[in-house]
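User: Sequence in, structure out. Go.
Assistant: Echoing your sequence, followed by the structure tokens.
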Amino acid sequence: MRIALDAMGGDRAPREQIRGALLAVREFEDLEVSLVGVAEVIEPELRLAGSHPRISVVPAGPAIAMEVAMTMLHNANADAVVSAGNTGAVMASAFFYVGRIRGIERPALALVLPYNAGRVLLIDVGANTDCRPSHLMQFAQMGSAYSEKVIGVRNPRVGLLNVGEEAGKGNELAAEAHERIKECGVNFIGNVEGTEVHKGIADVVVTDGFTGNIALKVGEGIADYLLLTLKGVIKSSPLFIGAALLLKPALKRALQRLQYEEYGGANLLGVNGVVVIAHGRSDAIAIKNALKVARQAAKSGLIETMRQSFARATEATQAAGT
């Protein structure tokens, strides 16, 4: 299992990318990581961090590292690509070098969110700000396939993010998408309100990229606020500090679930290969988790499943038209 990691993308590149790659290959014995980027910059950092036989360097200029990684994926020299670079640039590179799966109108960004009730896949979280009902229907199909093949959820429940639970609620897009998703063959449970997403009522929550990106960033902001508030309260009293020391393992475990580093990265579903986009501020832990997400998706056979599924759907549509 070889993953091409864009070593030049992200606010903390290449140091955190290198450290994240080392963490990943030490955790997963079947994993190889190709660090793609400026060799003169990467190699000294790699020697400093500690070399590993399953980490290699693929030379590329700083402006084309992402393109080289995508070309490796296209040519089957890598099983997946991970980048913490600019989201728009990563998507454009994936579209140009890897291409879309036949039958998919719009690829979408899907992110697994770890909630207390389990894991929920939110799709789309930013690839498409303007959508048609048919796009949301395909997001539901792609999200359902990912949840089943990668996360391991049998017959995943799919919900549509909306302002109310009743059918017909929301704007015109939501109302029409509701009808399309209901008929597309997924296990559709109807509308899901924002306050219900974290409760695990649905395994997949579908929305347009504009709404999904706002929801995601509001969630990140609330998590940051909670962390800062908790730290402030603990420091305000010696009694609280003493209690925090006793509860440190439990607090650490709870706080980890609020941090974006634990998400790993968003899968760009709909392109003809596994592409994972990590947070621009990713540290070594976040990069390691992004590589983990990419490894899981590549091992699952998701891409081949989606190719076959959407090819059949396209052939059926063409047959109906004739």
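User: And one key feature?
Assistant: The chain is about 50% helix and 15% strand.
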